[in-house]
């Protein structure tokens, strides 16, 4: 066996050992993650003790078993579940005495994508409960039966209900809920009397367990999961978030003003009123199958001052991600709407100060959102019209100079430095700014990116139809494919095809402006729209309709201006007149030319040596 064979076998062995080690680490990580998820699931699994007099099927546990599990709260371990409804014209909340918590939340003005009622919470997974120490373990109040009070009329026309868990007449825990009229807000107060007696002497916080299970509400599961996030804001006004699909655990340290579980168009948020949360621990899970978008298990630390009569007031927001509504709370909650992030974070100000006010103004008297998008597009193009005109004039000048530039390129061949110097002299003598056509593109970029953020997150477009698009907030599929096309998808979006086609027409119309000697610059305007076809195929129809309409306006404007407004002969005559004028060089231009000359002189001896 020669040396090369030995080296080959050694490398194969190293690769095999590396693969085995890597695979073992992956398995260990997977086992740890499964153990973590199972532990969390077991912690939040509802107890199965029931009242046999009501159900008639479950076996009743003995008193010793109840005492061991529930301690002094054993009497509340068994009961009959009773529901109470609080509602206004926006929200319907069904409360249950088991846990004294919301059992389901329905937003009455919205529907899920399949036409069913839109539920923000339902089922046994959703929990809002305190953890109480009992017999060397924590007891979740969601497993205990509270005594419900009567529905009361609160101040301002709201409805209120109180659930009490009594240990004795002078020691009890109360949850008080008040649904405000014509509002998505619920006032929620934890009231405890004598609770300090059952807590360890060194315990200064109460643990509030808050579980959320988000079900699919829109057409696209993938897009829903990308938008299933946990947002939070500290009392320092710092806002941050993470996506459930990418982060399985997050420890939030510091004083929290609010924490929100967000979906694409709706959210559930816990908001403190006086005292902030002392921290939070969030565990998440994204099921691999089924209709569940994501699950969040959140433990919130409530500061406990060990007062005999303790209250912690807060609010719960169950509602839409509507910018104006969230902004009205004046706590920065509107920042959960993705209006611009990353390197394009600045475009959120374009959305906040220009796009959203204009959109809201138009929607105030126009009911068709397709028409609103058309008017919004015209408004934006009118806003940048002066710069657009200057861009077309600059393009016309460059078109007039193209024959002379081609001569210079042929004259200097591969000597790009010499060609660059002669090109600058030509531009200077003709009075042409080669960057004149870039300004409108630079101005349009923030608007294009702002629209990319605005349309997919605008709840106003949700389930609004226009032409063949049934829902402007999602893709306008005209054909569902029985298979998935790589880098494209399993459906055909017509607005995306029209956007791509008009982008290619626009590129063809401007083909004379590209550097024909550079293959990349020559063909990129045609390749780029096709490359983006798969990206935009699954985006909101409102967005692709806007881009398509903007392309149509650009093509029409160019044709009108180039055909009827811009006189190429006059521009050519003016350029020739400018060439006759003495050229005054700026200091910057003189320094640039001197530098280029020195570089040329330095290259000459090197050429001789060769």
UniProtKB/TrEMBL annotation:
Single biological process term from Gene Ontology: protein insertion into membrane
Record flagged with keyword Transport: yes
This protein's GO CC annotations: plasma membrane
Domain of life: Bacteria
Topology in membrane: Multi-pass membrane protein
HAMAP family for this protein: YidC_type1
Protein name according to UniProt: Membrane protein insertase YidC
Origin species: Chitinophaga agrisoli
